[in-house]
Amino acid sequence: MRRALLTVVATTFVTWIGTRMTAVALPLVALAETGDAWTTGLVGGMAGLPLLTVGWWGRGIRDRLTSGPALGILMFGQAAGLAIVPAATAAGLLGVAALCASGLLTGAAGALLGPAQRALISDLADAGAAEGATSGPTAWLAWQDLAHRVSMIFAPPAGAWLVTTWGAEPLLWCETVIVALAALAMLSIPAAPAPAGSSVPADASPAGCSTPSVLAVLRSRPDVAAGIAMAGVGGISWFGFSLGLALLGVAHGMPGALIAVGMSGYGATSVLAAFLVPLLIERLPPMPTMATSWIVLGVTFTVLPAVAPDLLGMAAVAGVGGFAMPWGLAALNTLIGERTAGADRRAAFTAQSVLHSGGVSLGL
Questions:
Q1: What is the pLDDT of residue 208?
Q2: In the Cβ-directed half-sphere of 194, how many Cα atoms lie within 13 Å?
Q3: What is this structure's pTM?
Q4: How far is CA 212 from CA 37, 52, 115, 245, 261, in A?
Q5: How far is CA 216 from CA 60, 198, 204, in A?
Q6: Which of 64, 100, 190, 329 is deepest in the core (most CB within 10 A)?
Q7: Is residue 85 within 8 Å of 99, Cβ to Cβ?
Q8: Other CB atoms within 10 Å distance of the CB of residue 125
Q9: Which residue, among 33, 178, 52, has the nearest Cα to 103 in the 3D structure?
Q10: CB contact at 8 A, 99 and 40
Q11: Using an 8 Å Cβ cutoff, are 355 and 54 in contact?
Q12: C-alpha of 69 from chain center
């Protein structure tokens, strides 16, 4: 199971790098081809629609995403969506319709893929633990989060450099190829064997229904619902950090400086914490860890205006929030992994993605 887990984590890491690199190129291509600034956000905006509604339209699909081949097919669909923009650009046909189609297709694939990857990692780690492995779902999901945060640090600057030296359109083709190769790698990952016994509560599915709704799963597990609600509130409040720092910088006559320092301090310490989380998170109680993490982040938001415009103070305070954040997310993954299995686990991870990621978009 270790090889399968490493493959899943590695493919997510590589695809995240590609996504963050091409986030630099996509607006440039859209602006150059259409000449309208408002089209630069079309792909991202359209991609958000499937994410916010995946709990409804994805209910019958997510329970089929239980193996590497199933996720690989989904990733091929994602690659097809990514190819729309560079292909339309090469043909001289890039416009609103192509940008919207790319956003909808990649957004739908991404909305299903994120929760499915975390559920598959949890299932494979459970199977590995049953065979005597020392690392369970919590540790493997923490390693995946580390890969996520590392890609956030170096991929955007690398993407900017590649755009200037290589060009925006080739970079979009590069991401398409990367996702397609990752899909090929996923085809070798089997489904995790069903556990012989489990201590988690029974599925929340009503009699005669094999696919539980997200709401049914959350109602049957109040602790999981509380943890996901905390993540959702944190996501909605994220604008207080990102947008707030930008406005605070303008108010102090330092446009761009405060958000650059704050994001740098936050990002550096969150990566540092992410290196420690896989080693320690299994020893910490999930609910107190989650609550402490979100409280610390909230206090950080409150203190930042008091230390502005001191750049060193801003970096230090933002760094405290960045260090706290990975612990709360890992604790939520722990809770979902311990309290759910099978279809309920996939539903819980879907709720986590919708409320946290969707909350960030709604807050902004």
A1: 44
A2: 3
A3: 0.84
A4: 42, 18, 15, 41, 44
A5: 15, 20, 6
A6: 329
A7: yes
A8: 25
A9: 52
A10: no
A11: no
A12: 21
**Structure-block tokens of residue 22:** 């091409």
Contact 69, 187 (CB under 8 A): yes
256, exposed or middle or buried, with CB in 10 Å at 0-12, 13-18, 19+?
exposed
CB 183 within 8 A of CB 76: yes
364 CB-contact burial (10 Å; exposed 0-12 / middle 13-18 / buried 19+): exposed
- Among 119-133, 269-283, 303-317, where is mean pLDDT lowest? 119-133
Identify the H or E element spanning 248: helix 239-251
User: At 191, which amino acid appears?
Assistant: A
Residues in the chain: 364
Label residue 199 by pLDDT band (50, 70, 90).
very low
| Intra-chain end-to-end CA distance of the chain, in Å | 40
Burial class (CB in 10 A: 0-12, 13-18, 19+), 285: exposed
Q: How confident is the model at residue 363 (pLDDT cuts 50, 70, 90)?
A: low
Would the pLDDT of 357 be above 90? no
Q: Can you tell me the distance from the alpha carbon of 49 to that of 115, in angstroms, rounded to the nearest whole number?
A: 16
CB < 8 Å & 24+ apart, contacts of 229-234: 229/355, 230/290, 230/291, 230/294, 230/328, 230/332, 231/328, 231/329, 231/332, 231/352, 231/355, 231/356, 231/359, 232/355, 232/356, 232/358, 232/359, 233/294, 233/359, 234/294, 234/297, 234/328, 234/356, 234/359
pLDDT of amino acid 194: 62
- Dihedral (CA of 234, 336, 78, 57) sign: negative
In this structure, are residues 6 and 67 in contact, taking their beta carbons and an 8 Å threshold? Answer: no
CB–CB of 326/274 below 8 Å?
yes
pLDDT of amino acid 207: 43
